[in-house]
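Milestone M4 deliverable, item 7.
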Amino acid sequence: MKLGPLNHVGVATPSIPESIAFYRDVMGATEIHEPFDMPAQGVKVCFVDTPAQDGGQGTQIELIEPLGEDSPIHGFLKANPKGGQHHMCYEVPDIHVAKAEFEAMGKKVLGEPRIGAHGTLIFFVHPKDMGGVLTEIMETPKDG
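Output delivered:
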């Protein structure tokens, strides 16, 4: 299995507006995208772009806030009331091939591929099989 580039780091937060202020005022965010609801996943999402360094590329942060009482993020925020890193997301060229390869390695894939916040197919791999980090696998967007 060869993962593609890191696409984003997911950060659970009890308040997207407060997190936006932090990334803008403290971390120097270069772009703050419009927050949007993802009812099927029980979250509100906002992408924040951090500055590039030395001609490189910045990192995209996915802020994730619970949307409704059934949100899977509630459990994370109960254990981490101020929020924190929730997952890391890597790109792959073919989501179905990647899923089959993870399963063939004995990794616990959480659910079937579904549409994620970037509008492409995603799935998650359990932290116990990924060095303690919940890992999102995302099919590379067709527009790059």
